[in-house]
Design goal:
2 copies of one chain form a homodimer. Chain A has 12 helices and 19 strands. Chain A is α/β, with parallel strands linked by helices. Chain A folds into 3 domains: 261 residues, Metallo-dependent phosphatases (Purple Acid Phosphatase, chain A, domain 2); 53 residues; 40 residues.
Chain lengths: 381, 381
């Protein structure tokens, strides 16, 4: 049994208001080619298929084309689950009718987590799609009292443990944040205040765990519990990550081995730094000058239309930081710190500065609840 | 060959900001029951499945449930096309994978209008789904120079005429405005300035034509060229319409006969008129007082919180018109006239009142183009 594990496609995403749809198409074609080349028995996408619950029409079309290519042209089944960015109902439309075509979409969480048996060229395996679900949803669907993400996941995985796989290896597909995982700026927190993590131990009993959510490829706790990472760099904090899909092989005993197959972006996402005149000079001979760039200008003087000048050489400059100008004060560090902070921390700092005292425990709890409700409402809209 | 012809479900629609999703579910259950009772070979939905290109999640879920019931539980194939309200790409997602399940969705227009063969208990038939498409789209897809809806439809139907149905009856499913058709207030015009109509003659060669767009059931030109009408009254202008689905039977020779099967709304949409005190008095014994109501008050005096008083008896009053109060001036007629006018007419009147002169032919053309572009952009969004 061989399959590709990928996740966090985020179709329809923009980077600093630039549409990435062409870049997404470019790299998804590589995934199709890799699936064919390695003669895999399935392609698994572990959530965040789309970037938001209502994706733009061209993202829907792109997914439609990729699905068609994999399933209709190459007869490779596809398993995908909803992540925290996806609209579960929308993604799951007609999934009961799609199964027989080989397209297995797990949209909204249901009480009976279905076993998806995939026939391999050598051995078979059973896949369990566990869509992203917050504790409130798990309580609702399973009539239990799970309060944390950890407890909720335990309830879900208990279903998988109880399921009779008839001796076949069990692969869990899930979208969550495993404690200790390394995040990037482009992931939306699942919860406020750190209660969003689940421990890797929960996933230990399975033959392989195909995870989505974190954008850097990594394993947590055990080598068979893996994040494939996103298909593209979705923030400048990912500039040094190497994106890939994970080729997973389950042997006759159900033991998983993995290999990272690199993905090559049409345009890289990177940060360049220097004096304007130097950057313009070296840019002319930079064969990758159409990469998506953040530029840190070290010049200490005012520059008229720095963006315009830079784009005359680097067409896809997305953001200019006047590092040199701001280095003279503490402002830069302050701003960048703030941007990296969560809504919670931003509000807490604001509260402290205005009131001269910290949030009380009750206020802290109320604020966390409010922010969670807002995120929840956004997800449902 | 027996099939149900329905259209204009407009799932997710609101009436004066009231969600109709429960009412839609109520009446769709009747369609499922009728399909089973009459042992039909297919259910055909001729466009405007959703009310807008981005439907709310509960509308997606409702459609998912209805589809599941028809296809999975009762094994009745479903054919649906995109209307002018639908988002063609969204509706058409994974349609190539869905075909084998018996769900045939025709989303965006493609150059090869596919023949959908449905096996009947006695005879078979071939269905051609022609989604709503404006002349610009038809020009684009077919590389032709169709300028009007009439010319565009002729191009599309020529494809159907050329298609080899191997001697089986041909049924065309289309969403358009046939010249002379009777409209309601709840249909969105397909075009500005009257160029949106097509002649019934174009459809004469086919065995049956299942149309969508007009919300009142009717036939145009020939009895086999029919609008099924919407499943609910979507405006007060439809208060006297009887909603139904059309049961179509094609005999051995391919000759169509039709029967209207009535649909019963959970709550009617109607207008009541009278003095407030009279209405409140009769309302108490009105067993249908939870209907969706427009109330025309004949009182000639000011009334404090008329809506609140009315809703204490009639919970679903949606709109109150102070007919009595306004009858003393011409204002009412003016207002209601205005509401019934298209954006074009409204702007033209505004222009004339402000400038004291009419639009020139050039200005008229520019205005029509602009309004069409706005509608077009809305449809694509």
């Amino acid at each position: 049994m061989k399959f590709l594990h990928t996740s966090d496609w985020h179709l329809g995403r923009q980077l600093h208001n630039f549409s990435l749809i062409d870049d997404q198409q470019y790299v998804l074609q590589q995934i199709i080619d890799l699936a064919v080349e390695h003669r895999v028995d399935a392609v698994v996408v572990a959530g965040d298929i789309y970037d938001r619950s209502i994706p733009p029409a061209n993202a829907v079309k792109l997914l439609d084309d990729v699905i068609h290519e994999l399933i209709e042209v190459h007869h490779i089944p596809v398993i995908m689950i909803a992540g925290n960015h996806d609209g579960h109902e929308r993604l799951g439309f007609a999934s009961r009718q799609l199964k027989q075509s080989g397209l297995h979409i797990v949209g909204p969480l249901v009480a009976n987590i279905s076993a998806i048996t995939i026939k391999g060229k050598h051995t078979d395996a059973v896949f369990y799609g566990v869509p992203y679900a917050d504790p409130a949803t798990v309580r609702d669907v399973f009539d239990c009292d799970a309060r944390t993400h950890e407890e909720a996941m335990a309830v879900l995985l208990e279903q998988v443990i109880q399921s009779d796989a008839k001796g076949l290896p069990k692969v869990v597909v899930s979208h969550c944040f495993i404690a200790g995982g390394e995040s990037s700026d482009s992931e939306r927190p699942l919860s406020i205040g750190g209660a969003d993590h689940v421990s890797a131990e929960l996933f230990k009993p399975f033959n392989y765990v195909a995870l989505g959510h974190l954008h850097g490829p990594q394993f947590k706790g055990y080598p068979h519990i893996r994040y494939s990472g996103s298909i593209l760099k979705y923030s400048f904090s990912e500039q040094h990550q190497n994106k890939s899909v994970t080729l997973v092989t389950l042997d006759q005993k159900g033991i998983a081995t993995t290999e990272l197959l690199p993905l090559h972006a049409q345009r890289d996402v990177r940060i360049i730094e220097g004096l304007l005149s130097d950057l313009l000079e070296v840019g002319v001979s930079d064969t990758h000058r159409d990469d998506y760039l953040m530029v840190r200008l070290l010049d200490k003087t005012a520059i008229l239309d720095a963006m315009g000048k830079l784009r005359s050489v680097y067409p896809n400059v997305m953001h200019v930081e006047r590092t040199g100008l701001l280095a003279q004060t503490d402002t830069l560090e302050l701003n960048r710190d703030h941007l990296a902070k969560s809504e919670f921390a931003m509000f807490r700092d604001f509260f402290e500065q205005v009131n001269g005292e910290s949030l009380s425990p009750q206020q802290t709890e109320l604020l966390q609840q409010t922010i969670e409700e807002i995120h929840h409402a956004e997800d449902r809209s």
